């Protein structure tokens, strides 16, 4: 019996090695397939509940979604460019265009989501005419939203810009400032928290809601709807939407009654718009 075992031992060893190899190949296949089956989207915190509701809907269609929250406005594009995530949802077209110009990233808009109004808000004053000389005004410090704030102040008649169509205007482009406004530049989301400390802020409705400082409808001046400021689903240009996962997610987003209810709650009724229409 010992002799027979020795005769078969090489065969047993060969079969064992083959099983191990097949097992490793199978594991890698399953792991890769699982990765292919998961759609990963980077978001900023205000969109967490909104996109999670859509993720729950498409889960029923076999699309598994992982949402990754980022606290700043640079990391989501880095993550998409590096292939760490499939897409992101936090920026509008002007922001994206400027980001690509600054970094050379190969990113583009895969689809259009919702957008919102922005406005000028004050805890201390009831009208813009009430603003005193040298009033302190909180505006975002990133180039795109800073320019958007200045354009809104121009439209409200508080300042005059050299070119009100310049999407990258800076305070250096102000040619008239009759109230001698003093600008306080802060991170975009922090303008809401400055509401209690300065005379006027440039406010985003969802951040005002999150900070619980004021009703977004209480703006002293609101911008008109401008589709270029709708939030985009952004991917690399060479992104392959396997099994139409992202396309399915976008379609659900654009047609979800629950998503619209959450937008009403998080932004305020009438404070958001459908950028894809």
Summarize the structure in words.
The chain has 277 residues and is of the alpha/beta class. It is 39% helix and 22% strand. It has helices spanning 2-37, 48-59, 75-81, 93-103, 143-155, 205-211, 245-255, 257-267; strands spanning 38-43, 64-69, 87-92, 107-112, 114-116, 119-121, 136-140, 160-161, 174-176, 182-186, 200-203, 221-222, 231-236, 272-274. The strands form 4 sheets. A 5-stranded mixed β-sheet has the order 2-1-3-13-4, sandwiched between helices. A 5-stranded mixed β-sheet has the order 10-7-11-6-12. The protein has a two-stranded antiparallel sheet with strand order 5-14. Helix 2 links the parallel strand 1 and strand 2. It is globular, with a radius of gyration of 26 Å. The termini are far apart.
What are the SSEs and their pairings?
Elements: H1 2-37, E1 38-43, H2 48-59, E2 64-69, H3 75-81, E3 87-92, H4 93-103, E4 107-112, E5 114-116, E6 119-121, E7 136-140, H5 143-155, E8 160-161, E9 174-176, E10 182-186, E11 200-203, H6 205-211, E12 221-222, E13 231-236, H7 245-255, H8 257-267, E14 272-274
Short descriptors:
five-stranded mixed beta sheet, 277 residues, globular, 14 strands, single chain, alpha/beta
Give the number of DSSP strands. Answer: 14
The amount of helix comes to: 25-40%
First-residue to last-residue Cα separation: 80 Å
Radius of gyration: 26 Å
H and E string: HEHEHEHEEEEHEEEEHEEHHE
User: How much of the polypeptide forms β-strand, as a percent range?
Assistant: 15-25%
Question: What is the multimeric organization of the chains shown?
Answer: single chain
Low-confidence stretches: 25-35
Largest sheet: 5 strands, mixed
Strand order of the largest sheet: 2-1-3-13-4
Q: Structural class given helices, strands, pairing?
A: alpha/beta
Membrane topology: Lipid-anchor
Family: Belongs to the NlpA lipoprotein family.
InterPro entries: Lipoprotein_NlpA (IPR004872)
Keywords: Lipoprotein, Membrane, Palmitate, Signal, Transmembrane, Transmembrane helix
């Amino acid at each position: 019996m010992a002799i027979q075992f020795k005769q078969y031992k090489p065969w047993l060893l060969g079969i064992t090695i083959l099983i191990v190899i097949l097992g490793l190949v199978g594991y890698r296949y399953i792991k890769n397939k699982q990765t292919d089956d998961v759609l990963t989207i980077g978001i900023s915190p205000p969109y967490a509940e909104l996109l999670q509701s859509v993720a729950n809907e498409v889960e029923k269609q076999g699309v598994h979604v992982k949402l990754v929250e980022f606290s700043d406005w640079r990391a989501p594009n880095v993550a998409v460019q590096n292939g760490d995530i499939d897409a992101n949802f936090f920026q509008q077209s002007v922001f994206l265009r400027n980001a690509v110009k600054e970094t050379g990233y190969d990113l583009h808009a895969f689809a259009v989501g919702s957008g919102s109004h922005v406005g000028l808000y004050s805890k201390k004053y009831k009208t813009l005419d009430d603003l005193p000389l040298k009033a302190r005004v909180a505006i975002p410090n990133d180039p795109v939203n800073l320019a958007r704030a200045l354009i809104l102040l121009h439209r409200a008649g508080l300042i005059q810009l050299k070119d009100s169509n310049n999407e990258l205007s800076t305070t250096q482009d102000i040619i008239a400032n009759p109230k001698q406004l003093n600008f306080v530049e802060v991170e975009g989301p922090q303008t809401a928290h400055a509401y209690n400390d300065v005379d006027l802020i440039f406010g985003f409705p969802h951040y005002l809601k999150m900070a619980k400082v004021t009703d977004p409808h209480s703006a002293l001046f609101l911008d008109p709807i401008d589709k270029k400021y709708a939030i985009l689903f952004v991917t690399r240009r060479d992104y392959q939407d396997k099994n139409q996962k992202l396309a399915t997610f976008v379609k659900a987003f654009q047609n979800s009654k629950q998503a619209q209810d959450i937008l009403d709650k998080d932004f305020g009724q009438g404070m958001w718009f459908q950028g894809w229409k």
